[in-house]
Input
Amino acid sequence: MSSNAKANEGIGSYDNPVASVAEATRIIENQNDNGKYARDYEINFLPGIYNNPIKLMGFNNGNLIVNGENAVIKGSIPINKSDFEKVNQEDILDKIPEKAQGNIYRVNLCEKKYVESTEEEFRIFTKDGICNIARYPNDDGIKSSADFMTTGKVINNSFSYSDPRGDRWGSATDAYVYGMFRYDYFNDRYKVDVNTVDKVISVETNGDEILSDKPFYIYNLIEELDAEDEYFFDKKSGYLYVCCPDIENENYEISLKNNSAIVLENCHNVTLSGFVIENSYSDLIKINKGENVLIQDCEIRNGFSKAVRVTNSDNSAVNRCNIYNIGGGGIYLEGGNRTTLIGGKNVVKNCVIHDYQLFDREYTGAVNLIGTNHIVNNNHIYNGYSMAINMYGNNHLIENNDIHNVCEETNDMGAVYSHGDWSFRGNAINHNYFHDLKSFELGVNAIYLDHGVSGTSITNNIFENVTKISVNINGGRDNIIKNNLFIKNGDNECLYGVAISDILNWSGSYENQCKPSQDLVDKLYAVNYKSQYYSKYKHLANILEDEPMLPKYNVVEENMFIGISNPIPGDWLRTVNFQQLVNNLESVINNYQSDNDPGFYDMAKKDYSLKSDADIFRTFPNFKEVTLENIGP
Output
Protein backbone atom coordinates (compact mmCIF):
# COMPACT_ATOMS: atom_id res chain seq x y z
CA MET A 1 0.00 0.00 0.00
CA SER A 2 1.33 3.45 -0.87
CA SER A 3 0.39 7.04 -0.06
CA ASN A 4 1.24 7.89 -3.69
CA ALA A 5 -0.96 5.25 -5.31
CA LYS A 6 -4.02 6.25 -7.29
CA ALA A 7 -7.38 5.13 -6.00
CA ASN A 8 -8.82 1.90 -7.43
CA GLU A 9 -5.91 1.32 -9.84
CA GLY A 10 -3.55 -0.91 -7.84
CA ILE A 11 -3.53 -4.69 -7.56
CA GLY A 12 -1.80 -4.87 -4.16
CA SER A 13 1.73 -5.74 -5.29
CA TYR A 14 4.93 -3.89 -4.40
CA ASP A 15 5.17 -2.47 -7.92
CA ASN A 16 1.48 -1.67 -8.20
CA PRO A 17 0.21 -0.93 -4.67
CA VAL A 18 -3.29 0.00 -3.60
CA ALA A 19 -4.15 3.39 -2.13
CA SER A 20 -6.18 2.39 0.96
CA VAL A 21 -6.91 -0.39 3.40
CA ALA A 22 -10.44 -0.57 1.98
CA GLU A 23 -9.00 -1.49 -1.42
CA ALA A 24 -6.67 -4.06 0.17
CA THR A 25 -9.50 -5.74 2.06
CA ARG A 26 -11.63 -5.88 -1.11
CA ILE A 27 -8.83 -7.77 -2.81
CA ILE A 28 -8.61 -10.08 0.20
CA GLU A 29 -12.36 -10.73 0.12
CA ASN A 30 -12.26 -11.49 -3.59
CA GLN A 31 -9.38 -13.93 -3.10
CA ASN A 32 -11.18 -15.51 -0.19
CA ASP A 33 -14.62 -15.78 -1.78
CA ASN A 34 -15.98 -13.08 0.58
CA GLY A 35 -14.65 -14.72 3.74
CA LYS A 36 -15.64 -18.28 2.98
CA TYR A 37 -12.24 -19.66 3.97
CA ALA A 38 -10.05 -18.63 6.90
CA ARG A 39 -6.60 -17.64 5.68
CA ASP A 40 -3.63 -15.52 6.72
CA TYR A 41 -3.06 -12.15 5.08
CA GLU A 42 -0.56 -9.34 5.28
CA ILE A 43 -0.83 -5.69 4.27
CA ASN A 44 2.44 -3.75 4.07
CA PHE A 45 2.46 0.05 4.05
CA LEU A 46 5.24 1.62 2.04
CA PRO A 47 7.04 4.54 3.76
CA GLY A 48 5.08 7.76 3.58
CA ILE A 49 2.52 10.01 5.21
CA TYR A 50 -1.10 8.87 5.06
CA ASN A 51 -3.71 11.51 5.82
CA ASN A 52 -6.57 9.13 5.14
CA PRO A 53 -7.26 6.99 8.22
CA ILE A 54 -7.13 3.22 8.39
CA LYS A 55 -10.69 1.87 8.64
CA LEU A 56 -11.13 -1.88 8.89
CA MET A 57 -14.64 -3.22 9.32
CA GLY A 58 -15.71 -6.78 9.95
CA PHE A 59 -12.48 -8.72 9.36
CA ASN A 60 -13.11 -11.84 11.42
CA ASN A 61 -12.21 -14.84 9.29
CA GLY A 62 -8.50 -15.56 9.26
CA ASN A 63 -5.48 -13.64 10.50
CA LEU A 64 -4.39 -10.24 9.25
CA ILE A 65 -1.06 -8.51 9.86
CA VAL A 66 -0.78 -4.84 8.90
CA ASN A 67 2.83 -3.61 8.87
CA GLY A 68 3.66 0.07 8.86
CA GLU A 69 7.40 0.50 9.18
CA ASN A 70 8.23 4.16 8.37
CA ALA A 71 4.55 4.85 7.65
CA VAL A 72 2.80 7.75 9.41
CA ILE A 73 -0.97 7.53 9.81
CA LYS A 74 -2.71 10.81 10.58
CA GLY A 75 -6.19 11.70 11.73
CA SER A 76 -5.73 15.13 10.20
CA ILE A 77 -5.33 16.83 6.83
CA PRO A 78 -2.88 19.63 5.99
CA ILE A 79 -3.92 23.25 5.62
CA ASN A 80 -2.28 24.56 2.47
CA LYS A 81 0.28 27.30 3.08
CA SER A 82 -1.11 29.21 0.11
CA ASP A 83 -4.47 29.48 1.90
CA PHE A 84 -2.96 31.62 4.66
CA GLU A 85 -2.71 35.39 4.45
CA LYS A 86 -0.82 37.76 6.69
CA VAL A 87 -3.08 39.90 8.86
CA ASN A 88 -2.64 43.62 8.26
CA GLN A 89 -6.06 44.92 9.29
CA GLU A 90 -5.51 47.44 12.09
CA ASP A 91 -8.83 46.75 13.81
CA ILE A 92 -7.76 43.13 14.29
CA LEU A 93 -4.12 43.79 15.17
CA ASP A 94 -5.17 46.32 17.80
CA LYS A 95 -6.76 43.46 19.76
CA ILE A 96 -3.57 41.37 19.73
CA PRO A 97 -0.60 41.90 22.10
CA GLU A 98 1.96 44.13 20.43
CA LYS A 99 4.81 41.61 20.58
CA ALA A 100 2.84 39.18 18.38
CA GLN A 101 1.24 41.52 15.86
CA GLY A 102 3.83 40.80 13.16
CA ASN A 103 3.30 37.03 13.44
CA ILE A 104 -0.44 36.72 12.82
CA TYR A 105 -1.83 34.85 9.79
CA ARG A 106 -5.30 33.69 8.93
CA VAL A 107 -7.25 31.34 6.68
CA ASN A 108 -11.00 31.18 6.12
CA LEU A 109 -11.83 27.57 6.96
CA CYS A 110 -15.35 27.74 5.57
CA GLU A 111 -14.45 29.31 2.23
CA LYS A 112 -11.58 26.86 1.76
CA LYS A 113 -13.85 23.90 2.67
CA TYR A 114 -11.88 22.67 5.68
CA VAL A 115 -15.08 22.83 7.74
CA GLU A 116 -18.70 22.80 6.65
CA SER A 117 -19.84 25.43 9.14
CA THR A 118 -18.45 27.69 11.83
CA GLU A 119 -20.09 25.45 14.46
CA GLU A 120 -18.00 22.44 13.50
CA GLU A 121 -15.48 21.51 16.19
CA PHE A 122 -11.84 20.88 15.31
CA ARG A 123 -8.29 20.95 16.63
CA ILE A 124 -5.11 22.30 15.02
CA PHE A 125 -1.77 20.48 14.96
CA THR A 126 1.82 21.16 13.92
CA LYS A 127 4.86 18.92 13.67
CA ASP A 128 5.43 19.61 17.37
CA GLY A 129 2.01 18.43 18.49
CA ILE A 130 -1.36 19.81 19.55
CA CYS A 131 -1.74 23.57 19.36
CA ASN A 132 -3.24 25.57 22.21
CA ILE A 133 -6.25 27.78 21.76
CA ALA A 134 -5.17 31.33 22.65
CA ARG A 135 -5.07 31.58 26.45
CA TYR A 136 -3.77 33.47 29.46
CA PRO A 137 -1.53 32.72 31.19
CA ASN A 138 0.33 30.91 28.43
CA ASP A 139 1.31 27.28 28.91
CA ASP A 140 5.09 27.26 29.17
CA GLY A 141 5.27 23.46 29.12
CA ILE A 142 6.33 23.31 32.76
CA LYS A 143 3.86 22.17 35.41
CA SER A 144 3.74 25.12 37.80
CA SER A 145 1.42 27.67 39.37
CA ALA A 146 2.56 30.17 36.70
CA ASP A 147 0.18 28.41 34.28
CA PHE A 148 -2.84 29.68 36.26
CA MET A 149 -4.53 32.67 37.83
CA THR A 150 -6.66 32.29 40.97
CA THR A 151 -10.28 33.20 41.48
CA GLY A 152 -9.76 35.15 44.70
CA LYS A 153 -12.97 35.75 46.64
CA VAL A 154 -16.03 34.45 44.78
CA ILE A 155 -19.49 36.01 45.20
CA ASN A 156 -22.42 34.56 43.22
CA ASN A 157 -19.98 32.82 40.83
CA SER A 158 -18.27 36.10 40.02
CA PHE A 159 -14.85 37.31 41.11
CA SER A 160 -12.73 40.38 40.58
CA TYR A 161 -9.40 40.47 38.79
CA SER A 162 -6.42 42.72 39.43
CA ASP A 163 -4.18 41.79 36.51
CA PRO A 164 -4.31 44.69 34.00
CA ARG A 165 -4.26 42.08 31.27
CA GLY A 166 -7.95 41.53 31.96
CA ASP A 167 -8.80 44.98 30.69
CA ARG A 168 -8.25 43.66 27.16
CA TRP A 169 -10.99 41.04 27.41
CA GLY A 170 -14.12 43.17 27.44
CA SER A 171 -15.02 42.57 23.78
CA ALA A 172 -14.49 38.80 23.95
CA THR A 173 -17.87 37.14 23.28
CA ASP A 174 -16.93 33.46 23.39
CA ALA A 175 -14.29 33.22 26.13
CA TYR A 176 -14.07 30.30 28.56
CA VAL A 177 -12.26 29.48 31.77
CA TYR A 178 -10.70 26.13 32.63
CA GLY A 179 -9.80 25.17 36.16
CA MET A 180 -10.47 23.16 39.29
CA PHE A 181 -13.20 25.45 40.58
CA ARG A 182 -14.85 23.03 43.01
CA TYR A 183 -12.57 20.09 43.81
CA ASP A 184 -8.84 19.67 43.40
CA TYR A 185 -9.33 16.47 41.43
CA PHE A 186 -12.08 17.67 39.06
CA ASN A 187 -11.72 20.14 36.19
CA ASP A 188 -14.48 22.32 34.76
CA ARG A 189 -14.91 24.53 31.70
CA TYR A 190 -17.30 27.45 31.83
CA LYS A 191 -18.19 30.33 29.54
CA VAL A 192 -17.48 33.74 31.04
CA ASP A 193 -18.37 37.41 30.69
CA VAL A 194 -15.72 40.01 31.50
CA ASN A 195 -16.80 43.38 32.85
CA THR A 196 -13.76 45.62 32.42
CA VAL A 197 -15.44 48.60 34.09
CA ASP A 198 -15.93 46.83 37.44
CA LYS A 199 -13.03 44.40 36.76
CA VAL A 200 -15.25 41.37 37.35
CA ILE A 201 -15.35 37.96 35.64
CA SER A 202 -18.76 36.29 35.78
CA VAL A 203 -18.93 32.54 35.22
CA GLU A 204 -21.86 30.69 33.60
CA THR A 205 -21.84 27.48 35.68
CA ASN A 206 -25.26 25.93 34.97
CA GLY A 207 -25.91 25.64 38.69
CA ASP A 208 -22.44 24.65 39.92
CA GLU A 209 -20.98 26.72 42.70
CA ILE A 210 -17.36 27.70 42.21
CA LEU A 211 -15.10 28.28 45.20
CA SER A 212 -12.64 30.98 46.15
CA ASP A 213 -8.89 30.85 45.53
CA LYS A 214 -9.06 28.19 42.83
CA PRO A 215 -6.62 27.97 39.89
CA PHE A 216 -7.83 28.69 36.36
CA TYR A 217 -6.86 30.08 32.98
CA ILE A 218 -8.96 31.94 30.41
CA TYR A 219 -8.96 30.88 26.75
CA ASN A 220 -10.56 31.26 23.34
CA LEU A 221 -10.03 34.99 22.88
CA ILE A 222 -8.06 36.71 20.13
CA GLU A 223 -6.77 39.22 22.69
CA GLU A 224 -4.40 36.50 23.99
CA LEU A 225 -3.08 35.27 20.63
CA ASP A 226 0.59 35.85 21.43
CA ALA A 227 2.42 32.50 21.81
CA GLU A 228 3.89 30.51 18.94
CA ASP A 229 1.36 28.12 17.36
CA GLU A 230 -1.56 29.33 19.44
CA TYR A 231 -4.74 29.82 17.44
CA PHE A 232 -8.14 31.48 17.62
CA PHE A 233 -11.20 30.72 15.50
CA ASP A 234 -13.63 33.55 14.86
CA LYS A 235 -17.04 31.90 14.44
CA LYS A 236 -18.59 35.06 13.01
CA SER A 237 -16.20 35.33 10.06
CA GLY A 238 -14.96 31.76 9.70
CA TYR A 239 -11.34 32.84 9.98
CA LEU A 240 -8.73 30.77 11.79
CA TYR A 241 -5.97 33.00 13.20
CA VAL A 242 -2.56 31.57 14.09
CA CYS A 243 0.49 33.07 15.73
CA CYS A 244 3.44 31.90 13.65
CA PRO A 245 6.86 33.59 13.40
CA ASP A 246 7.83 31.54 10.31
CA ILE A 247 4.80 30.49 8.24
CA GLU A 248 6.92 29.15 5.36
CA ASN A 249 8.54 26.53 7.56
CA GLU A 250 5.48 25.56 9.55
CA ASN A 251 2.87 22.98 8.59
CA TYR A 252 -0.58 23.30 10.13
CA GLU A 253 -3.06 20.45 10.05
CA ILE A 254 -6.72 20.23 11.06
CA SER A 255 -8.69 17.35 12.56
CA LEU A 256 -12.47 17.43 12.96
CA LYS A 257 -14.25 16.25 16.09
CA ASN A 258 -15.00 12.68 14.98
CA ASN A 259 -11.69 12.06 13.20
CA SER A 260 -9.49 9.15 14.30
CA ALA A 261 -6.35 7.80 12.67
CA ILE A 262 -7.26 4.11 12.95
CA VAL A 263 -10.71 2.53 13.40
CA LEU A 264 -11.27 -1.22 13.76
CA GLU A 265 -14.85 -2.41 14.09
CA ASN A 266 -15.80 -6.06 14.69
CA CYS A 267 -12.32 -7.31 13.78
CA HIS A 268 -10.72 -10.51 15.01
CA ASN A 269 -7.10 -11.70 14.87
CA VAL A 270 -5.64 -8.45 13.54
CA THR A 271 -2.15 -7.11 14.29
CA LEU A 272 -1.05 -3.54 13.53
CA SER A 273 2.67 -3.06 13.89
CA GLY A 274 5.34 -0.42 13.37
CA PHE A 275 3.26 2.70 12.63
CA VAL A 276 3.60 6.29 13.75
CA ILE A 277 0.01 7.33 14.58
CA GLU A 278 -0.71 10.99 15.23
CA ASN A 279 -2.89 14.10 15.04
CA SER A 280 -6.55 13.43 15.71
CA TYR A 281 -9.32 15.23 17.56
CA SER A 282 -11.03 11.97 18.53
CA ASP A 283 -9.18 8.93 19.89
CA LEU A 284 -6.15 8.12 17.76
CA ILE A 285 -7.03 4.41 17.66
CA LYS A 286 -10.54 3.04 18.17
CA ILE A 287 -11.21 -0.66 18.54
CA ASN A 288 -14.79 -1.83 19.10
CA LYS A 289 -16.05 -5.42 19.29
CA GLY A 290 -12.55 -6.71 18.77
CA GLU A 291 -11.08 -10.11 19.56
CA ASN A 292 -7.34 -10.83 19.54
CA VAL A 293 -6.42 -7.39 18.20
CA LEU A 294 -2.79 -6.41 18.82
CA ILE A 295 -1.30 -2.91 18.52
CA GLN A 296 2.45 -3.37 18.69
CA ASP A 297 5.70 -1.41 18.24
CA CYS A 298 3.90 1.84 17.40
CA GLU A 299 4.56 5.45 18.30
CA ILE A 300 1.22 6.98 19.25
CA ARG A 301 1.29 10.72 19.80
CA ASN A 302 -0.38 14.10 19.52
CA GLY A 303 -4.00 13.12 20.08
CA PHE A 304 -6.52 15.49 21.63
CA SER A 305 -8.64 12.71 23.17
CA LYS A 306 -7.28 9.25 24.05
CA ALA A 307 -4.40 7.39 22.46
CA VAL A 308 -6.17 4.01 22.25
CA ARG A 309 -9.80 3.24 23.09
CA VAL A 310 -10.75 -0.45 23.27
CA THR A 311 -14.46 -1.11 23.90
CA ASN A 312 -16.59 -4.27 24.00
CA SER A 313 -13.45 -6.24 23.23
CA ASP A 314 -11.58 -9.22 24.66
CA ASN A 315 -8.11 -10.73 24.46
CA SER A 316 -6.62 -7.65 22.83
CA ALA A 317 -3.35 -5.90 23.66
CA VAL A 318 -1.20 -2.82 23.32
CA ASN A 319 2.46 -3.88 23.45
CA ARG A 320 5.82 -2.10 23.18
CA CYS A 321 4.29 1.25 22.22
CA ASN A 322 5.55 4.75 22.97
CA ILE A 323 2.60 7.00 23.83
CA TYR A 324 2.90 10.72 24.54
CA ASN A 325 1.44 14.21 24.03
CA ILE A 326 -2.12 13.02 24.57
CA GLY A 327 -4.95 15.32 25.62
CA GLY A 328 -7.37 13.07 27.50
CA GLY A 329 -5.74 9.87 28.73
CA GLY A 330 -3.59 7.09 27.31
CA ILE A 331 -5.26 3.70 26.89
CA TYR A 332 -8.87 2.83 27.72
CA LEU A 333 -9.63 -0.89 28.08
CA GLU A 334 -13.20 -2.10 28.36
CA GLY A 335 -14.06 -5.78 28.19
CA GLY A 336 -15.40 -8.78 30.06
CA ASN A 337 -18.66 -9.17 31.93
CA ARG A 338 -19.05 -7.84 35.46
CA THR A 339 -22.21 -9.86 36.11
CA THR A 340 -20.72 -13.27 35.29
CA LEU A 341 -17.09 -12.19 35.88
CA ILE A 342 -16.06 -13.61 32.51
CA GLY A 343 -12.69 -12.01 31.84
CA GLY A 344 -11.96 -9.47 29.13
CA LYS A 345 -8.24 -10.30 29.35
CA ASN A 346 -7.08 -7.18 27.55
CA VAL A 347 -3.46 -6.23 28.15
CA VAL A 348 -1.18 -3.17 28.23
CA LYS A 349 2.46 -4.20 28.48
CA ASN A 350 5.98 -2.94 27.84
CA CYS A 351 4.76 0.57 26.97
CA VAL A 352 6.15 3.98 27.82
CA ILE A 353 3.33 6.45 28.49
CA HIS A 354 3.96 10.06 29.44
CA ASP A 355 2.40 13.52 29.09
CA TYR A 356 -1.06 12.01 28.64
CA GLN A 357 -3.39 14.58 30.27
CA LEU A 358 -2.62 17.79 28.41
CA PHE A 359 -6.23 19.02 28.24
CA ASP A 360 -8.57 16.74 30.19
CA ARG A 361 -7.27 15.83 33.65
CA GLU A 362 -10.43 14.37 35.15
CA TYR A 363 -10.24 10.58 35.64
CA THR A 364 -8.12 10.17 32.50
CA GLY A 365 -5.33 7.79 33.41
CA ALA A 366 -2.43 6.64 31.32
CA VAL A 367 -4.32 3.33 31.53
CA ASN A 368 -8.04 3.04 32.31
CA LEU A 369 -9.42 -0.39 33.23
CA ILE A 370 -13.15 -1.05 32.85
CA GLY A 371 -14.64 -4.52 33.22
CA THR A 372 -12.84 -7.68 34.31
CA ASN A 373 -9.49 -9.43 34.15
CA HIS A 374 -7.31 -6.86 32.39
CA ILE A 375 -3.53 -6.84 32.82
CA VAL A 376 -1.18 -3.85 33.04
CA ASN A 377 2.41 -5.01 33.31
CA ASN A 378 5.95 -3.77 32.78
CA ASN A 379 5.07 -0.24 31.73
CA HIS A 380 6.77 3.08 32.47
CA ILE A 381 4.27 5.86 33.29
CA TYR A 382 5.23 9.42 34.18
CA ASN A 383 4.47 13.14 33.73
CA GLY A 384 0.78 13.09 34.60
CA TYR A 385 -1.30 15.89 36.07
CA SER A 386 -3.57 13.34 37.74
CA MET A 387 -3.79 9.53 38.08
CA ALA A 388 -1.64 6.99 36.25
CA ILE A 389 -4.04 4.02 36.34
CA ASN A 390 -7.80 4.26 36.76
CA MET A 391 -9.03 0.85 37.96
CA TYR A 392 -12.74 -0.01 37.76
CA GLY A 393 -14.02 -3.57 37.93
CA ASN A 394 -12.81 -6.96 39.05
CA ASN A 395 -9.82 -9.29 38.90
CA HIS A 396 -7.39 -6.87 37.24
CA LEU A 397 -3.64 -7.33 37.60
CA ILE A 398 -1.27 -4.34 37.83
CA GLU A 399 2.28 -5.62 37.99
CA ASN A 400 5.94 -4.65 37.44
CA ASN A 401 5.21 -1.04 36.47
CA ASP A 402 7.43 1.99 37.07
CA ILE A 403 5.17 4.92 38.03
CA HIS A 404 6.45 8.34 39.07
CA ASN A 405 5.81 12.08 38.79
CA VAL A 406 2.06 11.77 38.38
CA CYS A 407 -0.78 13.51 40.27
CA GLU A 408 1.32 16.66 40.00
CA GLU A 409 -1.55 19.16 39.80
CA THR A 410 -4.23 17.51 41.85
CA ASN A 411 -5.25 16.71 45.40
CA ASP A 412 -7.13 13.81 46.99
CA MET A 413 -6.03 11.49 44.19
CA GLY A 414 -3.88 8.38 43.69
CA ALA A 415 -1.37 7.17 41.12
CA VAL A 416 -3.51 4.01 41.04
CA TYR A 417 -7.07 5.03 41.79
CA SER A 418 -10.37 3.21 42.21
CA HIS A 419 -13.63 4.62 43.53
CA GLY A 420 -17.02 3.94 44.94
CA ASP A 421 -18.03 0.28 44.59
CA TRP A 422 -18.05 -2.47 47.23
CA SER A 423 -18.21 -5.06 44.45
CA PHE A 424 -14.84 -4.04 42.93
CA ARG A 425 -12.88 -7.06 44.18
CA GLY A 426 -10.23 -9.56 43.19
CA ASN A 427 -7.79 -6.93 41.92
CA ALA A 428 -4.05 -7.37 42.48
CA ILE A 429 -1.39 -4.65 42.58
CA ASN A 430 1.89 -6.53 42.77
CA HIS A 431 5.56 -5.58 42.51
CA ASN A 432 5.32 -2.04 41.19
CA TYR A 433 7.70 0.83 41.80
CA PHE A 434 5.88 3.97 42.97
CA HIS A 435 8.25 6.87 43.53
CA ASP A 436 8.64 10.64 43.58
CA LEU A 437 4.96 11.46 44.02
CA LYS A 438 4.33 14.99 45.17
CA SER A 439 1.49 17.40 44.39
CA PHE A 440 0.91 21.04 45.19
CA GLU A 441 -0.74 20.35 48.56
CA LEU A 442 0.97 17.04 49.30
CA GLY A 443 -2.44 15.44 48.78
CA VAL A 444 -1.25 12.53 46.67
CA ASN A 445 -1.43 8.80 47.30
CA ALA A 446 0.38 6.02 45.51
CA ILE A 447 -2.60 3.65 45.75
CA TYR A 448 -5.99 5.07 46.65
CA LEU A 449 -8.92 2.70 47.14
CA ASP A 450 -11.58 5.32 47.62
CA HIS A 451 -15.10 5.15 49.03
CA GLY A 452 -15.47 1.46 49.70
CA VAL A 453 -13.30 -0.31 47.12
CA SER A 454 -12.46 -3.69 48.62
CA GLY A 455 -10.83 -7.07 48.15
CA THR A 456 -7.58 -5.77 46.63
CA SER A 457 -4.23 -7.48 47.12
CA ILE A 458 -1.34 -5.01 47.44
CA THR A 459 1.89 -6.98 47.65
CA ASN A 460 5.64 -6.73 47.00
CA ASN A 461 5.52 -3.07 45.93
CA ILE A 462 8.13 -0.38 46.54
CA PHE A 463 6.78 2.99 47.71
CA GLU A 464 9.66 5.45 47.61
CA ASN A 465 9.40 9.17 48.39
CA VAL A 466 5.61 9.36 48.43
CA THR A 467 4.88 12.59 50.25
CA LYS A 468 1.43 11.97 51.71
CA ILE A 469 0.06 8.41 51.83
CA SER A 470 1.43 5.37 50.09
CA VAL A 471 -1.69 3.20 50.51
CA ASN A 472 -4.99 4.91 51.34
CA ILE A 473 -7.97 2.69 52.14
CA ASN A 474 -11.09 4.85 52.39
CA GLY A 475 -13.69 2.55 53.88
CA GLY A 476 -12.86 -0.59 51.94
CA ARG A 477 -12.60 -4.02 53.50
CA ASP A 478 -10.87 -7.35 52.84
CA ASN A 479 -7.83 -5.59 51.40
CA ILE A 480 -4.43 -7.21 51.90
CA ILE A 481 -1.32 -5.00 52.24
CA LYS A 482 1.57 -7.40 52.60
CA ASN A 483 5.33 -7.58 52.04
CA ASN A 484 5.72 -4.06 50.69
CA LEU A 485 8.64 -1.66 51.14
CA PHE A 486 7.74 1.88 52.21
CA ILE A 487 10.84 4.07 52.15
CA LYS A 488 12.04 7.66 52.36
CA ASN A 489 15.18 7.84 50.23
CA GLY A 490 15.48 11.50 49.26
CA ASP A 491 14.31 14.96 50.24
CA ASN A 492 10.55 14.33 50.13
CA GLU A 493 8.85 14.10 53.49
CA CYS A 494 6.97 10.79 53.68
CA LEU A 495 4.10 11.20 56.12
CA TYR A 496 2.05 8.00 56.14
CA GLY A 497 2.52 4.42 55.04
CA VAL A 498 -0.94 2.79 55.23
CA ALA A 499 -3.94 4.94 56.17
CA ILE A 500 -7.32 3.32 56.74
CA SER A 501 -10.59 5.10 57.53
CA ASP A 502 -14.31 4.57 57.52
CA ILE A 503 -16.46 6.20 54.85
CA LEU A 504 -19.24 8.73 54.89
CA ASN A 505 -21.80 9.37 52.16
CA TRP A 506 -21.47 13.17 52.59
CA SER A 507 -25.24 13.69 52.64
CA GLY A 508 -27.18 15.55 55.31
CA SER A 509 -26.58 15.08 59.02
CA TYR A 510 -23.66 13.10 60.43
CA GLU A 511 -26.07 10.34 61.46
CA ASN A 512 -27.34 10.11 57.91
CA GLN A 513 -23.80 10.25 56.51
CA CYS A 514 -22.96 7.07 58.40
CA LYS A 515 -25.56 5.13 56.42
CA PRO A 516 -24.76 3.51 53.04
CA SER A 517 -25.46 5.83 50.13
CA GLN A 518 -28.05 4.67 47.63
CA ASP A 519 -25.36 4.76 44.96
CA LEU A 520 -23.23 2.16 46.76
CA VAL A 521 -26.26 -0.06 47.34
CA ASP A 522 -27.46 0.23 43.74
CA LYS A 523 -24.05 -0.82 42.45
CA LEU A 524 -24.23 -4.02 44.50
CA TYR A 525 -27.57 -4.99 43.01
CA ALA A 526 -26.44 -4.00 39.50
CA VAL A 527 -24.00 -6.95 39.47
CA ASN A 528 -26.23 -9.30 41.50
CA TYR A 529 -23.66 -9.40 44.31
CA LYS A 530 -25.22 -12.44 46.01
CA SER A 531 -24.96 -14.59 42.91
CA GLN A 532 -22.79 -17.68 42.56
CA TYR A 533 -20.26 -15.67 40.57
CA TYR A 534 -19.60 -13.28 43.46
CA SER A 535 -19.71 -15.91 46.21
CA LYS A 536 -15.90 -16.28 46.08
CA TYR A 537 -15.45 -12.79 47.54
CA LYS A 538 -15.28 -12.94 51.35
CA HIS A 539 -17.77 -10.96 53.43
CA LEU A 540 -19.57 -9.53 50.40
CA ALA A 541 -22.92 -11.35 50.48
CA ASN A 542 -23.83 -9.98 53.93
CA ILE A 543 -22.09 -6.61 53.68
CA LEU A 544 -25.24 -4.53 54.16
CA GLU A 545 -25.90 -6.30 57.47
CA ASP A 546 -22.29 -6.04 58.68
CA GLU A 547 -21.63 -2.37 59.52
CA PRO A 548 -20.85 -1.62 55.87
CA MET A 549 -19.36 1.84 56.44
CA LEU A 550 -16.55 0.48 58.64
CA PRO A 551 -13.24 -0.71 57.11
CA LYS A 552 -13.40 -4.28 58.32
CA TYR A 553 -11.21 -7.32 57.62
CA ASN A 554 -8.20 -5.50 56.16
CA VAL A 555 -4.76 -7.09 56.59
CA VAL A 556 -1.51 -5.16 57.07
CA GLU A 557 1.32 -7.66 57.53
CA GLU A 558 5.04 -8.10 57.00
CA ASN A 559 5.70 -4.66 55.53
CA MET A 560 8.90 -2.67 55.93
CA PHE A 561 8.67 1.06 56.79
CA ILE A 562 11.96 2.97 56.50
CA GLY A 563 11.99 6.67 57.39
CA ILE A 564 8.19 6.99 57.28
CA SER A 565 6.90 9.57 59.76
CA ASN A 566 3.77 7.62 60.73
CA PRO A 567 3.64 4.14 59.16
CA ILE A 568 0.07 3.22 60.20
CA PRO A 569 -1.68 6.30 61.58
CA GLY A 570 -4.44 5.67 64.07
CA ASP A 571 -6.11 9.05 63.76
CA TRP A 572 -6.48 9.29 59.99
CA LEU A 573 -9.74 11.04 59.09
CA ARG A 574 -12.53 9.76 61.34
CA THR A 575 -10.89 6.71 62.90
CA VAL A 576 -10.61 7.82 66.53
CA ASN A 577 -7.52 5.93 67.67
CA PHE A 578 -5.18 3.10 66.82
CA GLN A 579 -7.08 0.60 68.94
CA GLN A 580 -10.32 1.32 67.07
CA LEU A 581 -8.44 0.83 63.82
CA VAL A 582 -7.03 -2.50 65.03
CA ASN A 583 -10.48 -3.64 66.12
CA ASN A 584 -11.72 -3.24 62.56
CA LEU A 585 -8.76 -4.94 60.96
CA GLU A 586 -8.29 -8.63 60.39
CA SER A 587 -4.58 -8.48 61.16
CA VAL A 588 -1.82 -5.92 61.80
CA ILE A 589 1.31 -7.95 62.61
CA ASN A 590 4.98 -8.36 61.80
CA ASN A 591 5.50 -4.91 60.35
CA TYR A 592 9.06 -3.57 60.59
CA GLN A 593 9.77 0.11 61.25
CA SER A 594 13.08 1.97 61.35
CA ASP A 595 14.57 5.35 60.53
CA ASN A 596 17.85 3.69 59.54
CA ASP A 597 19.11 1.51 56.71
CA PRO A 598 17.94 -2.00 57.71
CA GLY A 599 20.73 -3.71 55.78
CA PHE A 600 20.24 -2.94 52.08
CA TYR A 601 23.14 -3.68 49.77
CA ASP A 602 23.23 -0.06 48.56
CA MET A 603 20.38 2.22 49.62
CA ALA A 604 21.95 5.27 47.94
CA LYS A 605 21.84 3.49 44.58
CA LYS A 606 18.38 2.06 45.29
CA ASP A 607 19.59 -1.50 45.54
CA TYR A 608 17.05 -2.72 48.06
CA SER A 609 18.18 -6.32 48.13
CA LEU A 610 19.01 -7.33 51.69
CA LYS A 611 22.30 -8.51 53.11
CA SER A 612 22.22 -11.83 54.88
CA ASP A 613 22.82 -10.10 58.22
CA ALA A 614 20.23 -7.36 57.68
CA ASP A 615 18.59 -6.13 60.88
CA ILE A 616 15.09 -7.03 59.70
CA PHE A 617 15.95 -10.73 59.66
CA ARG A 618 16.60 -10.58 63.41
CA THR A 619 12.95 -9.65 63.89
CA PHE A 620 11.33 -11.31 60.88
CA PRO A 621 13.59 -14.10 59.57
CA ASN A 622 11.17 -15.00 56.75
CA PHE A 623 10.77 -11.51 55.29
CA LYS A 624 10.92 -11.57 51.48
CA GLU A 625 13.03 -8.77 50.01
CA VAL A 626 11.50 -6.46 47.41
CA THR A 627 13.82 -5.17 44.67
CA LEU A 628 13.59 -3.27 41.38
CA GLU A 629 14.34 -6.35 39.31
CA ASN A 630 11.97 -6.84 36.33
CA ILE A 631 10.31 -3.44 36.83
CA GLY A 632 9.32 -1.51 33.71
CA PRO A 633 9.55 -2.31 29.97
About this structure: The longest helix spans residues 21-31. The helical segments are 21-31, 90-93, 510-513, 518-526, 578-584, 616-619. The radius of gyration is 27 Å. Residues 572-577 have pLDDT under 50 and may be disordered.
